[in-house]
Write a structure and sequence with these properties.
The protein is of the alpha/beta class. Helices cover about 40% and strands about 20% of the residues.
Length: about 350
């Protein structure tokens, strides 16, 4: 990541309770002269290396670019995209398989499968098949742990919500929005969905360089049980879009369909982030808002032990999920070793040159 430390980094997919959750569907904008390159190929065929080289080219050309990292292997790229979505390149294979919507018009499918010697791959066929099955099994185990953790975190949030002053929370958020957002624009805002964190082979990985790139000021709401922060972030999101601001909404990888954890507004260089024991980031806040100011302490004390138990147990389950992800990564490395000897990477380089020419 060091070569691209000035580029915002995200995840666009993550292991979630109901399986792999992907938002690769909103990666590319079908704009005039837009270009999207869908890379197809097996493990170890050079997709991530191609994406890193494309990112370097976009950087050299001075194009503002986002990097999408792989939650199963945080050293690998899954996609590269310009801010306006006019140029994108992505790993279009499972678990985030993408097919062209406008083939040949905006999207170009680039197959790396014709850069390998199929006879060599078939020689390793039995081993490769076994590794594919083992890898899937490890990811399924990780998802079961994440699902169990989600149940406990949801219970903690529900218990916590019983003691939250909901109207006070929303009013505080709106007061900040009124002060920060200025006049409403004559258009609705747009929203890009991203993940800033994910359960990975290295534990819970947090891409905390991205907020530093996008924001000069960040409001942090410190909320361990995840009750008042939901109200706060939902209020900020709604207000920002109504003001016509373009935002990044970062979902919780445990609750990807419903819970917004962080919001960034690049045009204002402003951010709103959620902090808790499971989010270890090095961002220095402009202002920290403690959830206890929105909490009825007497009501909270009745559920305090239950909440603490649920949060502690959830943390252990997430740690176990990360262990399975680590095992899956080891198996994936073995899979790559089955494909790499069969690859002619000079052919991959030729395909890369053609992509760069089109860009």
């Amino acid at each position: 990541m060091s070569d691209f430390k000035d580029m915002p980094s995200w995840f666009l997919g993550a292991n979630a309770p109901k399986g792999y959750y992907s938002r690769f569907d909103q990666l590319f904008t079908a704009a005039p002269k837009g270009k999207c390159f869908l890379l197809k190929g097996g493990p170890g065929t050079g997709k991530s290396t191609v994406l890193k080289k494309i990112a370097s080219v976009l950087k050299e050309k001075g194009l503002s670019t986002e990097l999408i990292y792989c939650s199963a292997d945080t050293d690998s790229l899954d996609a590269v995209i310009t801010y306006d979505g006019s140029v994108a390149a992505l790993d279009a294979t499972l678990p985030h398989a993408v097919e062209p919507k406008y083939p040949g018009v905006y999207e170009t499918t680039v197959s790396l499968c014709d850069c390998w010697n199929e006879d060599i791959i078939k020689e390793n066929g039995a081993r490769a098949s076994a590794f594919f099955d083992e890898n899937r099994h490890m990811h399924e185990e990780a998802r079961r742990y994440i699902s169990a953790a989600a149940s406990l975190l949801d219970e903690a949030a529900k218990l916590g919500m019983e003691s939250v002053y909901q109207e006070k929370t929303a009013r505080t958020a709106l007061r900040i929005c009124t002060r920060e957002f200025g006049k409403k624009q004559h258009r609705p805002g747009t929203e890009k969905i991203r993940f800033l964190s994910a359960v990975t082979d290295k534990g819970v990985c947090f891409l905390d360089n991205t907020p530093k790139i996008l924001c000069k000021r960040i409001y942090v709401i410190d909320d361990d049980c995840g009750a008042s922060s939901r109200i706060f972030m939902n209020t900020v999101r709604k207000a920002a879009l109504e003001h016509g601001l373009d935002i990044y909404s970062c979902r919780c990888p445990i609750f990807p369909s419903e819970k917004t954890e962080h919001i960034f507004i690049p045009s204002l260089e402003l951010g709103f982030m959620t902090a808790n024991r499971r989010h270890k980031f090095s961002v220095v806040p402009y202002r920290t808002i403690h959830s206890r100011r929105f909490t009825d302490e007497k009501k909270y004390s009745k559920n305090k032990i239950k909440i603490r138990f649920a949060l502690r147990a959830a943390s252990h389950l997430i740690a176990e999920a990360a262990k399975r992800m680590k095992e899956a990564k080891i198996i994936h490395d073995e899979l790559e070793a089955c494909y790499i000897p069969a690859m002619d990477f000079s052919l991959v380089d030729e395909k890369l040159k053609k992509i760069i020419e089109k860009i």
